[in-house]
Amino acid sequence: MNLKDKVAVITGSSSGVGAALATKLASEGASVVINYNQSEEGAIQTRERIVASGGRAVIAQGDVSEEADCERIAETAIGSFGRLDILVNNAGCTTFVPHENLKDLTSAIWERTLRVNLMGAFFMSRAAMPHLQKAGGGEIVMTSSIASQTASGSSIAYCASKAGMNSLTRSLAKAFGKDNIRVNAVLPGLIDGDWAFDTWGDSDDARYEALKTQFADMTPLGHVVEPADVADVIVSIITGSDFVTGQLVTIDGGFTL
Fold first, then answer.
1. CA nearest 154: which of 107, 195, 186, 184?
2. In angstroms, how far is CA 8 from the centroid of its own chain?
3. Which CATH number does the domain housing residue 74 bear?
4. Are 73 and 17 in contact (CB under 8 A)?
5. Is residue 247 very low, low, confident or very high in pLDDT (cuts 50, 70, 90)?
6. How far apart are CA 18 and CA 123, in angstroms?
7. Which of the four, 38, 70, 77, 88, has the lowest number of CB atoms within 10 Å?
8. Can you tell me the distance from the alpha carbon of 108 to that of 101, in angstroms, rounded to the nearest whole number?
9. Which percentage of the chain shows pLDDT scores above 90?
10. Is 208 in the active site?
11. Domain limits at 36?
């Protein structure tokens, strides 16, 4: 797909991977809908960077766990730019609970994790689908995680939600390929940034730096994934071959080899 004059919705794009991706897509000619749930300041900063570079972007607040919000986010693309070609389901949440600690993995944690990470991706995809079909095809990319396959991560609920996202990716790809809609997922390892620090660092710089070093030492490439790395891969999927769909693309520097 040539990105010039295309329109993208990126959920959870006020920081991290989403913000990096919004900036990159805009730099290559796409108009972008920046979504945030709580971090309005981050969304404004992302939009200002895009506009300052000559790009086009609008902001849509919304909680992807709420279907009505998802429909409103998709409609923002239509109302602002007249079309929708690309959806990146990037919004996510997690709560750190050691896997052996089943008691503390409460129903509330399960419900929030699944609603944001899995049901939110479904709600957004359903809201976007008629617009992608009207455009004659398009792209959906999910931000999943290697936790979906390694069974290790911030919690069992998080692993399960991302495994569900992988299945959703393949199901949608199979169902809507006839409409020229490609659906793929990226599976990053530890992503260096505020989200990972808030989850793993526990306000402890030394602990977080030690974790990054541990991950880097365990990867053939010796590199912890950064938001720009994930953004680059997502762009390569969107702009690459029209015959790649239903794929789960790992971005972890070789950590899972």
1. 195
2. 13
3. 3.40.50.720
4. no
5. very high
6. 18
7. 38
8. 15
9. 83
10. no
11. 7-190+226-251
At 55, list the tokens.
Answer: 């790009």
On the question of pLDDT at 115 being above 60, the answer is yes
Q: What is the pTM of this model?
A: 0.94
Q: Considering the domain boundaries, does residue 217 fall inside one? A: no
| Total domains in the fold of the chain | 1
DSSP 237: H
240 is a domain residue: yes
Largest Cα–Cα separation, the chain = 51
Task: Give 200's pLDDT tier (boundaries 50, 70, 90).
Answer: low
Helix, strand, or coil (residue 208): helix
Catalytic residue among 122, 123, 158, 176: 158
List, as one string, the DSSP characters of 133-199: HHTT-EEEEEE--THHHHS-SS-HHHHHHHHHHHHHHHHHHHHHGGGTEEEEEEEE--B-SHHHIII
Residue 2 lies inside a defined structural domain of this protein: no
Residue 20 lies in a domain: yes
Give the residue-averaged pLDDT of 20-35. Answer: 98
**pLDDT above 70 (res 196):** no
Q: Which residues contact 165 (CB under 8 A, 6 or more apart)?
A: 89, 117, 118, 121, 142, 144, 148, 185
- Using alpha carbons, select from 78, 6, 18 the residue that is nearest to residue 239: 6
**Would you mind telling me the total number of residues written for the chain in this entry?**
257
Burial class (CB in 10 A: 0-12, 13-18, 19+), 113: buried
